[in-house]
Specification:
4 helices; Jelly Rolls; 8-stranded antiparallel sheet; 24 strands
Length: 441
């Protein structure tokens, strides 16, 4: 509260309040001259310049005269809870250092200012306001989901059948050779006659050749059988692994479809201001029954958070239309004030990626997965549904209600949701409608 002076016992002052206090009303206790205290009721819907008068709370009058009036002029603080992120020239496609947006109306930022913003502290606020409310993290429920039981997302491939031991093959070969040698010895004893030495010698030679050939055939057959068994085992393992992966994707898709066909916890058309607390300002706001995220400065990733949301395990889905520029997307489990969140970023050509931001330094961001959605409606002004399923450390990505990829990360357990627009060298305008959230156990 800043006092502007008084007249005939009146006390005039300016009372600064936040946008949330202006929208929903608040109660303030003020300390007046002489250490007197007075409680002021600020009604909902209060705007900048509105005056509140409290009779009898001014300076006491002389000789028993009636005390003056406390006259308060309301000043609503500028909007907060949005931010932006510059990208370094070295690699335009890699998320980089996050900085906070200046209080409106700011002067145009130079390139140096955008990449190295000042962090000067001032009384009551910094010249770069916080980008969202910090919500206390809540651990996910230990119980399995009931809509239906959420399947495990990471499954190990079935064990491959044991390969036949080379030692066993060697033993079998030795046994075969022993049998052959024994047979030859029996043959020599049974047919040896002095009168038929030549015939016996000829027969022996034939028996030796035939026996050796048979042994070699047996060894070759055994080796071929072993090789075939190994090939069959590998093919079987690959088939089982492929079948298991297919079964997992099928189960994930079935669970997702069942969830999004039920009633959502949050159902915001994004056409006008709502209880979700979407920030409104030059870059983030409502236009033509849609919520737009716009950025004109090159190499900036703008995010607009819903300050009054906080979700842990959930399905978050929104309709995105890239009006101009290249990329949009969503953030979730966000601590927007400290630039910590997961980012699901999608380009108009169908490519996508998932990043984890641990702090304001973009080079510390870690890519969790990426790919190309073949079912996406590409090009500008094409509408697509983006969705994420976050359950514990498991994160699944969907585009147009079709499963795309999964990742595993437990860095963030809960937080706000938000929307994104990325300027990678061209002005970007991304329109969003119908934000929905389904809570999961």
């Amino acid at each position: 509260m800043a006092t502007n002076g008084q007249n005939n016992g009146d006390i005039r002052a300016t009372l600064a309040i936040s946008q949330a206090e202006a929208q929903y009303g608040t109660t303030r206790t003020l300390t007046l001259p002489g250490k007197r205290q007075v409680t002021v009721q600020v009604p909902a819907g209060t705007t900048t310049g509105q005056v509140i008068r409290i009779e009898g709370e001014g300076e006491p009058g002389a000789s028993g005269n009636v005390a003056g009036t406390l006259i308060l002029t309301i000043s609503v603080a500028p909007a907060e809870n949005f931010g932006y992120q510059p990208y370094p020239a070295a690699e335009q496609n890699f998320p980089t250092e996050l900085v906070q947006a200046p209080l409106p109306p700011p002067p145009p930022l130079s390139t140096e200012q955008a990449f190295h913003p000042p962090v000067e502290q001032r009384e009551g606020y910094t010249n770069y306001p916080p980008q969202g409310q910090l919500y206390p993290a809540s651990l996910p429920s230990a119980q399995a989901p009931t809509i239906p039981s959420y399947p495990p997302y990471s499954q190990s491939a079935p064990q491959q059948p044991r390969r036949r031991s080379t030692g066993l093959v060697a033993v079998l070969i030795i046994l075969v050779l022993a049998l052959i040698v024994g047979s030859l010895a029996t043959f020599y004893v049974g047919v040896y006659q002095p009168a038929q030495l030549h015939a016996q010698a000829t027969s022996t030679a034939i028996a030796k050749v035939t026996g050796t050939a048979q042994a070699q055939a047996n060894v070759t057959a055994q080796a071929e059988a072993t090789r075939q068994a190994q090939t069959n085992a590998t093919a079987t393992a690959q088939t089982l692994a492929s079948n298991a992966a297919t079964a997992t994707v099928t189960a994930l898709q079935a669970n997702y479809s069942q969830i999004v066909n039920s009633s959502p916890t949050l159902n915001d058309p994004l056409s006008t201001a709502s209880a979700s607390g979407w920030i409104e300002g030059p870059e983030c706001g409502y236009t033509n029954n849609a919520y737009h995220a716009k950025e004109t400065q090159s190499n900036i990733l703008l995010y607009c958070a819903a300050s009054k949301t906080n979700f842990s395990n959930f399905v978050y889905r929104v309709s995105m239309t890239i009006v101009s520029g290249q990329r949009g997307g969503i953030i979730f489990r966000a601590d927007a004030a400290n630039s910590k969140f997961y980012l699901f970023r999608v380009a108009q050509d169908g490519t996508y990626d998932l990043y984890m931001y641990p702090d304001k330094t973009g080079t510390n961001a870690r890519k969790l997965t990426s790919g190309t959605a073949t079912n996406m409606h590409t090009g500008q002004n094409a509408s697509n549904l983006l969705a994420v399923v976050a359950h514990g450390s498991e994160i699944d990505l969907y585009i147009n209600d079709q499963y795309q990829a999964s990742a595993n990360d437990s860095t963030f357990q809960s937080g706000a949701i938000g929307l994104v627009a990325e300027n990678d060298g061209n002005p970007v305008d991304v329109a969003y409608t119908q934000a929905q959230v389904w809570r999961l156990p």
